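STRUCTURE:
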């Protein structure tokens, strides 16, 4: 019942063996199928009944299940298919049958079968199909695991960051999102308030309904009311037809009101009525319309002061701030600057069709020490600017905007390690600081996600630690003033050798990346071989003491 076509055209074996379950009530046929698949690096488990197959499927996850359609009964193979898709949705199923039934084949494909093979089998085709099915299974698993890691590390889609301040904000976001609570987002201009509002919506039960954003400061009082609540024909000059307001349009979804502190007193009253009664009245109409929306608002103003001065209604303020979410500014999450730069430069390199090979240490140093008064929005604009003006694929100081070149270094910024060898001082080719490897933000599809490089929150050597930086004492007999600690003042470092400073920077960065040497090398601007050599030297020095 088998057509031999072993030949020399066997498929190239993958690095990891495919795990395949072969189900056939003819033992001899099952063994031949398994032997053929094992020639292309598959590990096969062979069973001869539906019950055995179901037990194996529950016990472990296979990459592919190859099953005969007819086992104990005419449709036992379909039952194996259905059970596999229920227990192991990622696993692909290939059906075999001695009967050429079009209806059965169609039914099998509708049930989720990967392919349908007629006996006698062409073993070469069998192997090719099983290999493709295994590749599809593994791709789904990789994508799922990648998404899980991104969700765990970076929170929600579009939210990029791994500093302590950011992780705390993301954790609060995760707790708030599944609820229906009204949320007030606080933060400076440019911190990404609308992005967080979208994250709240996309991770809530309302995610399949509209998300509508409106800037209250950008519209006059009458236009804002019309946008929010709608109007009827003739309600005011130029109202030539009825208009559906945002509250009606977003029914079942989420409305985000940015700069809510700039809302006029009369509009505040109407918004309060919507929150209390869940109904709106279009401008110029006497008819009320029921609405069910989640309200997320944001402001960079101190609403408590506005309430005290009578500019904002106290009752509305308390309605809006059922739950508050305060976003850190870029100074408070300076450790995220490298990640954000890499993320945005990747986006704009793709947008403008450019190939950005890296960022020089001098340029990266300027960017790290900049104060970023405009927060993430300013950083995003700078990333676009340097990609646009660059002409050689290497971002250098001459590509940076004047405001960054002329700025006074931020005393609170993470310290760039000056004692480390520069690319010119090493025996290796120059190492660039921007790497686009395989995982970082869910703003891009899993096949093209950005670098996983996370900048460590370096300590400042001015007597105070940068938030989140580990304190790593380094003992050395070469240090005349005793153990070198990252919290030591700059003055106290006088007399400490550059070798000791290098040691501190490398060990702090290695600790902050959880021991990931590849990430540590990228952050410090070192070649991996240089880093490995220095760590080996440290270990030898410690062992000799």
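SEQUENCE:
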């Amino acid at each position: 019942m088998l057509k031999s076509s072993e030949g020399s055209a066997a498929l190239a074996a993958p690095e990891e063996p495919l795990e395949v379950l072969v189900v056939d009530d003819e033992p001899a046929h099952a063994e031949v199928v398994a032997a053929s698949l094992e020639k292309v690096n598959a590990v096969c488990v062979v069973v001869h009944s539906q019950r055995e197959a179901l037990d194996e499927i529950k016990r472990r996850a296979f990459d592919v299940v190859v099953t005969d359609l007819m086992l104990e009964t005419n449709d036992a193979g379909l039952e194996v298919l259905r059970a596999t898709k229920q227990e192991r949705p990622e696993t692909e199923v290939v059906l075999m049958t001695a009967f050429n039934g079009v209806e059965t084949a169609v039914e099998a494909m509708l049930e989720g079968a990967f392919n349908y093979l007629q006996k006698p089998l062409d073993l070469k085709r069998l192997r090719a199909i099983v290999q493709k099915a295994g590749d599809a299974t593994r791709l789904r698993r990789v994508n799922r695991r990648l998404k899980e890691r991104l969700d765990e590390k970076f929170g929600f889609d579009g939210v990029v960051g791994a500093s302590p301040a950011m992780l705390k904000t993301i954790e609060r976001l995760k707790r708030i999102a599944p609820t229906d609570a009204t949320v007030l987002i606080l933060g400076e201009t440019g911190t990404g308030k609308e992005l967080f509002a979208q994250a709240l919506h996309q991770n809530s039960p309302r995610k399949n309904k509209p998300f509508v954003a409106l800037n209250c400061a950008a519209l006059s009082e009458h236009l804002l009311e019309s946008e929010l609540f709608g109007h009827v024909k003739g309600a005011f000059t130029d109202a030539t037809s009825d208009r559906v307001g945002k509250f009606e349009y977003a029914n079942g979804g989420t409305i985000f009101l940015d700069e809510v502190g700039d809302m006029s007193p009369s509009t505040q009253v109407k918004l309060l009525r919507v929150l209390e009664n869940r109904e709106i009245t279009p401008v110029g109409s006497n008819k009320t319309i029921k609405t069910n929306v989640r309200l997320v608002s944001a402001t960079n103003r101190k609403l408590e002061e506005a309430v005290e001065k009578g500019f904002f209604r106290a009752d509305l303020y308390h309605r809006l701030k059922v739950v508050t979410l305060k976003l850190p500014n870029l100074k408070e999450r300076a450790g995220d600057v490298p990640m954000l730069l890499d993320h945005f430069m990747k986006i704009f390199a793709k947008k403008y069709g450019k190939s950005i090979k890296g960022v020089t240490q001098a340029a990266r140093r300027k960017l790290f020490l900049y104060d970023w008064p405009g927060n993430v929005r300013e950083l995003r604009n700078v990333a676009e600017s340097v990609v646009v003006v660059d002409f050689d694929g290497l971002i250098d100081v001459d590509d940076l905007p004047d405001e960054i070149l002329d700025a006074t270094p931020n005393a609170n910024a993470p310290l760039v390690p000056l004692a480390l060898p520069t690319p010119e001082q090493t025996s290796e080719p120059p190492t660039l600081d921007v790497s686009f490897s395989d995982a970082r933000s869910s703003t891009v599809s899993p096949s093209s996600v950005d670098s996983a490089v996370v900048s460590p929150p370096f300590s400042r050597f001015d007597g105070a630690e940068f938030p989140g930086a580990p304190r790593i004492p380094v003992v050395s007999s070469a240090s005349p003033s005793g153990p070198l600690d990252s919290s030591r003042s700059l003055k106290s470092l006088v007399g400490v050798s550059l070798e000791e400073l290098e040691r501190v920077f490398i060990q702090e960065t290695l600790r902050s990346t959880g021991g990931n040497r590849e990430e540590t090398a990228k952050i410090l601007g070192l070649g991996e071989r240089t880093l490995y050599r220095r760590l080996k030297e440290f270990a030898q020095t410690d062992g000799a003491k």
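REMARK: The radius of gyration is 31 Å.
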